[in-house]
From TrEMBL:
InterPro entries: Cyclic-di-GMP_PDE-like (IPR050706), EAL_dom (IPR001633), EAL_sf (IPR035919), GGDEF_dom (IPR000160), Nucleotide_cyclase (IPR029787), Rev_trsase/Diguanyl_cyclase (IPR043128). Signal peptide: none annotated. This is EAL domain-containing protein. Residues 587-722 form the GGDEF domain. PROSITE patterns: EAL, GGDEF. Pfam families: EAL, GGDEF. The chain crosses the membrane at residues 20-43. It comes from Bariatricus massiliensis.
Length: 987
C-alpha cells in the first residue's frame, strides 16, 4: 500500500466502534442495577470496608519500612566511629593531612584503604544495595556559588542483591567509584560505569544531595552530632549509571569538630520494591506503593513507585498529584528524623494507591449475586457484545495472520486496518523490525570486539528461522562455512561434522567442551546451550586460557608451596573421600602423624632459611621412600600427615614405615660452620580398622601417640596404645555422669566483669560455666569426657542456651545493665544445628547484638572448620573473641583464621608484664595490629596495680582479672582499687 493510499483510509478508534452499540444495553442494565443494589446502600458500605483494609495495609507496611530504614539502613554510627578513629591515627602519623585530603585520590588512598573493610562490612550487615564514602574538607557552598565544582575522592560499592548469601571472595560486589590503587588492593571487580573519583568538574553533575546537604549541615552547625545531620537524599542516578536510588548519609566528623566527608548507603528502586510489594494493595496487582517527599501543596516529589500507577511520572522526575477520580490513596508519614534537626521539615510519606475499579471489584461481585433478576438483560448484552467484538476482531485477526507470514529477518511492511490504535501498532512493528535488524548487526560487532573469541546462534524451529553470528564456524576453524547461506538442516548437518572434537560435558552448567586442532597445539571451546520446546540458543567461547589457569590454581590450592606436598585441606579431602566413597579400597591402613624435631632450634640459631631447608629435606625423604599411592601432606610448619592404605596386613605397612624412617634418618643438612644436622622426627601411628574406622578418631589417636613419643623417647614413630590412652584418661569412664549433666543441664554460671580501660565502666561480663555435679571438678573434666564420647556438640548447645538464660535473667533482675555484652566460651570446631540456631534466634532475638563468643583452645581449628562454623552461625550475628592469645593453638595462625572482633591477651603474658620487656613488646605489637584493623584488646588475668597501669599504658581497651573484679554468681561491679588506678592513669 502506497503512502497516498494510507492517508485516504478513514481512521476510527476501537473505542468508538464498540461504545455506540453497547450504550443501549448499558442504559438498561444501569436502571436495573440502581433499583436492585444501590438503593440498599450495600455497595457504599463494601467500598468503605475495602478502603479501610487498604489503610491498614499502608499503615502496617509503613511501620515495617520505617523499622527497616531506622533499625538497619540508617545504622551507620558504628562504622563512622571506626573510620573517624582511623582518620585520627592517620592524621597523627602524618600519612594524611586535612589540607590535602580531598585534593585527589593519591592523598586519600591511605584513609580509603583503612575505611574499605568497615564500609564493606557495614554494607553486608545493613543489607543495602550500596555504600559510599566521599571526602571533602572545604565549604561546598562556595563551590556552588562560584560555579566551580570540584572532583572528590572516595569509594562507592554496589551490591545488586543484598539479601543473597555473600560471596566468600566478594564476587557479588561491584566498585562504582574508587582509586585504581584501592581497586587493586580490594580485588573486587569494577562496574561498567566505574570512575576513580566522583567526577563533578567535567561531567556537569552537580554535587549530590547526599554529599552536599549532610556535609553543609555539619559544617555550618558544629553543635549538631553526626546522627543529627543524617539525611535521606532525593532520588538520584549515580553519574554514568542508570539505577534510580535514594541514599542516607551522615557527615564524618573528627573529635575536634572538623568535617571531612560523608558516609552513606543507597537503596536502589529495584531493591526497595521488595519492601513495598504492590500486590498487597490490590489483588489484581494494579495497586501501587509510592515512597516520596510530600510537599506543602500535597503533591509528591522524588517518588519511587512499585506498581503501574504514576510510574512514568516518577521516572521523569515529575511531581505526582493523586487523581482521586481514578485512584483511592492513603498516606502514612515515616518518622525518619528527630525534631529540631536540620532536615526534620522534610516529610517522607508512604502512599498506597489503588484503582477505584479494583476497590469496587468485590462490590461488583456482590452486585452480580444480587442481580439475578437482570440475567436476561445481561445475556442480551453479552450476545450484543460478542457480535460487535467479532466485527472489530476480524481486521485484527487478518493483521495477525499477515504478521505471522512475514520473514522477521527482512524489513516488514503491513496493511492498514482502518482502526486508529491498531494502525499505530503496525507502524510500531514496522519500526521495531528495522530496530531488530540493526540490533542484530550491532550485537555481532560487539561479539567481534570481545577480549575472548565468542560466537552464537539461535534456532526457532516453530518459525523455521536460523540466526548465527558471522564468525560462528570460523571459531571452529572452518571460516569458509560462514559465507554460505544455510537452512536449519544445513546448520545441523555442518555442526555434526565437529562431533569428533567433543571431549567433555558439564551436566550442571549444561555446557560442552570441544578440543580443536590449531597448528601444533589445540584450542578449547565451550558451548553453552539453552533449549525450549521450539527454540535453541547457543554461545561458543574460547576457554583455552581459562582452562590452563584453572589447572595452575588447582595445584596452588592443594599443595604446600615449600614442599610441593598436599596441604591440610587437600589431605583431608583425599582421605575423607576414601572413607566416605571408596571404603572398600582401604583394607588395612595407617594414619601417621609426624612432627620434626629440632626445627625450632635451627630457626632460632641459624634462621628460617635453614629451617626451610630442614623441612625440604624431610619432604624429599617422604617423596623418595614412600610408595606412589601414599597420601602425604604438610599440615603446618613442622607437622606432616601420611596415610597408607590398600594393604593386606599391618606388617606390610610397618615395612613401608621402617623404610621411610631409614630414609628420613639418612637425610643430613649442612649448617653454617660445616655442622652436619641429621633430620629427626617423632611420630605416632593409628591403625585402620584395629584402632578405629573413623578418620577423625584416627587423627586424634595418631596425635596422642605422637605426643607420647615427643614427651618420652623422641626420634621414634610408634603405634597408638589404647590401654595407655584410657589409663591416662580415667574420667572417660564416667560417661553416665556426663549424660546426666547434659539431660539435667546441671551447670550454673559465674559472671566476671570486663571493664573499659579508659572509663572504668563495666562493658561486658564473661559467663564462666561451673558444673553442679561432684564427679566433675572443672569444665575441663566435662570437655574431656564429652570429646571422647562425641558429645562436644551437646555441650556447645547447652553452653549457648544456659549462658544466655542466666544472662537475660540477670538483666531482668536489674543486676546487669541492659546494654552490657556477654562473653562465653565456644568450642571452635562445633556449631549449633540449624534447628537449634533458629530456636536460639527466636528466643533471644533482642539480645543477639550483645553476644560475643570466645573461641577456646580446647580443640584445634583450621580454615575449613572455621568456615563451617561461621556459615552455620550467620543468622546469630554474634561477635567473636579470641581467648588466651599467646598460648596453645591461639597464636597468629588462629588470629588470621578467625579474624576476631576482640583479642584476649593470655594471663601468662599479663602477669608480671611491668617487669618484662618481652611481654610488653608482645602486647604492644598486638595492640597496634588490632587497632589498625578496628579490633579491641582485652587484658586477661590482671591481678596487681602495676600490671593494670602497664597494660593501660600500652593501649589495651578492656581489663579483666581479680584486681578488677572476681567472678560471682550475682554479678558485681568494678572494685574501688581498680577504679582508682584507672582514674589515676587518666591524669
Amino acid at each position: 500500500m502506497t503512502e497516498k493510499q494510507k492517508k485516504t483510509v478513514k481512521k476510527k478508534s476501537i473505542f468508538k466502534k464498540i461504545l455506540i452499540p453497547l450504550m443501549g444495553l448499558l442504559i438498561l442494565e444501569i436502571l436495573i442495577l440502581v433499583c436492585s443494589v444501590f438503593g440498599q446502600g450495600i455497595i457504599t458500605e463494601l467500598n468503605n470496608n475495602e478502603k479501610a483494609i487498604i489503610n491498614e495495609k499502608v499503615e502496617s507496611r509503613k511501620n515495617y519500612l520505617e523499622n527497616e530504614m531506622i533499625g538497619s539502613w540508617m545504622n551507620l554510627t558504628y562504622t563512622a566511629e571506626l573510620i573517624n578513629d582511623s582518620t585520627e591515627k592517620l592524621l597523627k602519623s602524618g600519612a594524611i593531612t586535612m589540607q590535602t585530603l580531598d585534593n585527589g585520590s593519591d592523598y586519600a588512598v591511605p584513609l580509603l584503604s583503612e575505611a574499605a573493610e568497615p564500609l564493606l562490612a557495614m554494607m553486608r550487615t545493613n543489607h543495602v544495595t550500596g555504600a559510599f564514602i566521599i571526602l571533602n574538607t572545604g565549604d561546598l557552598s562556595v563551590d556552588k556559588i562560584n560555579g566551580q565544582l570540584k572532583d572528590k575522592p572516595g569509594i562507592y560499592l554496589r551490591d545488586s542483591n543484598p539479601q543473597a548469601q555473600p560471596s566468600y571472595r566478594n564476587q557479588d560486589i561491584l566498585i562504582e567509584r574508587a582509586p585504581i590503587a584501592l581497586v587493586r588492593q580490594m580485588g573486587i571487580a569494577t562496574d561498567t560505569a566505574w570512575n576513580p573519583k566522583f567526577d563533578f568538574q567535567d561531567s556537569g553533575q552537580s554535587y549530590y544531595d547526599f554529599l552536599y546537604k549532610p556535609f553543609q549541615a555539619a559544617y555550618e552547625n558544629p553543635e549538631y552530632s553526626m546522627e543529627d545531620c543524617g539525611y535521606w537524599s532525593h532520588v538520584f542516578n549515580l553519574f554514568g549509571e542508570g539505577k534510580r536510588a535514594i541514599a542516607y548519609s551522615i557527615p564524618l566528623k573528627l573529635s575536634d569538630g572538623s568535617v571531612y566527608g560523608v558516609l552513606g548507603i543507597d537503596i536502589t528502586q529495584d531493591y526497595l520494591r521488595e519492601f513495598i510489594p504492590n500486590e498487597e494493595i490490590a489483588d489484581s496487582g494494579t495497586g501501587a506503593y509510592i515512597l516520596a517527599l510530600e510537599q506543602e501543596d500535597g503533591t509528591l516529589s522524588d517518588a519511587l513507585v512499585n506498581g503501574a500507577a504514576y510510574t512514568k511520572e516518577a521516572e521523569e522526575g515529575k511531581k505526582i498529584k493523586i487523581d482521586s477520580s481514578q485512584y483511592y490513596a492513603y498516606s502514612e508519614t515515616l518518622n525518619l528524623y528527630n525534631s529540631n534537626t536540620p532536615f526534620s521539615d522534610e516529610k517522607w510519606v508512604l502512599t498506597g494507591a489503588a484503582p477505584l475499579d479494583s476497590i469496587m471489584d468485590f462490590a461488583k461481585k456482590v452486585e452480580l449475586a444480587l442481580m439475578a433478576a437482570v440475567t436476561v438483560t445481561i445475556i442480551i448484552g453479552l450476545l450484543g457484545s460478542f457480535l460487535i467484538s467479532y466485527k472489530v476482531q476480524k481486521p485484527v485477526s487478518d493483521l495477525s495472520k499477515e504478521i505471522r507470514e512475514k520473514d522477521p529477518t527482512k524489513r516488514i511492511q503491513l496493511c492498514q486496518t482502518g482502526i486508529e490504535e491498531i494502525d499505530q501498532m503496525t507502524q510500531a512493528i514496522e519500526k521495531l523490525s528495522l530496530d531488530v535488524i540493526d540490533s542484530g548487526q550491532k550485537f555481532t560487532k560487539i561479539i567481534e570486539m570481545a577480549s575472548v573469541r565468542l560466537a552464537g546462534f539461535q534456532i526457532d524451529r516453530a518459525e523455521r528461522q536460523l540466526f548465527k553470528t558471522e564468525n560462528f564456524f570460523d571459531i571452529f576453524g572452518c571460516p569458509e562455512a560462514d559465507g554460505i547461506e544455510m537452512s536449519i538442516e544445513d546448520f545441523d548437518a555442518k555442526f555434526k561434522e565437529f562431533k569428533h572434537y567433543f571431549v567433555e560435558k558439564d551436566e550442571l552448567a549444561d555446557s560442552y567442551i570441544y578440543k580443536i586442532p590449531d597448528g601444533r597445539g589445540s584450542r578449547f571451546l565451550k558451548l553453552k546451550c539453552r533449549m525450549t520446546e521450539d527454540s535453541c540458543y547457543g554461545l561458543v567461547e574460547d576457554v583455552t586460557q581459562s582452562l590452563l589457569e584453572k589447572k595452575v590454581l588447582q595445584h596452588e590450592r592443594d599443595h604446600d608451596p615449600l614442599t610441593n606436598l598436599f596441604n591440610r585441606r587437600a589431605f583431608r579431602r583425599e582421605v575423607q573421600e576414601l572413607f566416605e566413597e571408596r571404603q572398600e579400597e582401604l583394607k588395612t591402613a595407617a594414619l601417621i602423624m609426624i612432627d620434626l624435631d629440632n626445627l625450632k632450634y635451627i630457626n632460632d640459631t641459624y634462621g628460617h632459611d635453614y629451617g626451610d631447608k630442614y623441612i625440604i629435606k624431610a619432604a624429599l625423604a617422604f617423596r623418595y621412600y614412600l610408595p606412589a599411592g601414599a597420601i602425604t601432606a604438610r599440615i603446618s610448619g613442622d607437622e606432616f600427615n601420611i596415610f597408607l592404605y590398600g594393604y593386606d596386613s599391618e606388617k606390610e605397612i610397618q615395612t613401608v614405615i621402617d623404610t621411610m624412617k631409614m630414609g628420613l634418618d639418612s637425610m643430613v643438612l649442612t649448617l653454617p660452620g660445616d655442622i652436619l644436622q641429621k633430620v629427626q622426627a617423632s611420630g605416632g601411628i593409628a591403625w585402620y580398622p584395629k584402632d578405629s574406622t573413623s578418620f577423625e578418631v584416627l587423627l586424634k589417636y595418631a596425635d596422642y601417640a605422637m605426643y607420647m613419643v615427643k614427651n618420652s623417647t623422641k626420634g621414634e614413630i610408634l603405634s597408638f596404645d589404647k590401654e595407655h590412652y584410657l589409663s591416662k584418661n580415667s574420667l572417660i569412664q564416667n560417661k553416665e555422669a556426663l549424660t546426666r549433666l547434659i539431660e539435667r543441664r546441671a551447670v550454673k554460671y559465674a559472671f566476671q566483669p570486663i571493664v573499659d580501660a579508659r572509663t572504668g565502666k563495666v562493658f561486658a561480663y564473661e559467663a564462666l560455666m561451673r558444673p553442679e555435679m561432684e564427679e566433675f571438678k572443672s569444665v575441663l573434666d566435662v570437655l574431656e569426657i564429652a570429646r571422647y564420647e562425641g558429645k562436644l556438640n551437646q555441650i556447645e548447645e547447652m553452653t549457648w542456651f544456659e549462658a544466655m538464660r542466666a544472662f537475660v535473667g540477670h538483666i531482668k533482675a536489674g543486676t546487669i545493665a541492659e546494654d552490657a555484652y556477654i562473653f562465653f566460651n565456644s568450642i571452635p570446631n562445633q556449631y549449633l544445628s540449624m534447628q537449634a540456631e533458629r530456636t536460639f534466634a527466636d528466643e533471644y532475638r533482642e539480645y543477639l547484638g550483645q553476644i560475643v563468643v570466645e573461641l577456646t583452645e580446647e580443640e584445634r581449628i583450621d580454615r575449613e572448620a572455621w568456615d563451617e562454623k561461621r556459615t552455620h552461625g550467620r543468622e546469630l550475628r554474634r561477635k567473636i573473641a579470641l581467648d588466651d592469645y599467646g598460648s596453645g593453638y591461639n597464636s597468629e595462625k588462629m588470629l588470621i583464621t578467625i579474624s576476631p572482633d576482640y583479642i584476649k591477651v593470655d594471663i601468662a603474658i599479663v602477669n608480671g608484664i611491668h617487669q618484662s620487656s618481652d611481654k610488653r613488646a608482645i602486647v604492644e605489637y598486638i595492640v597496634n595490629y588490632a587497632h589498625e584493623r578496628g579490633k579491641f584488646i582485652i587484658a586477661e588475668g590482671v591481678e596487681t596495680e602495676e600490671e593494670t597501669e602497664e597494660v593501660i599504658r600500652l593501649g589495651v581497651d578492656y581489663l579483666q582479672g581479680y584486681y578488677v573484679a572476681k567472678p560471682t554468681f550475682t554479678p558485681a561491679g568494678i572494685l574501688p582499687q581498680a577504679l582508682e588506678t584507672i582514674e589515676k592513669m587518666k591524669n
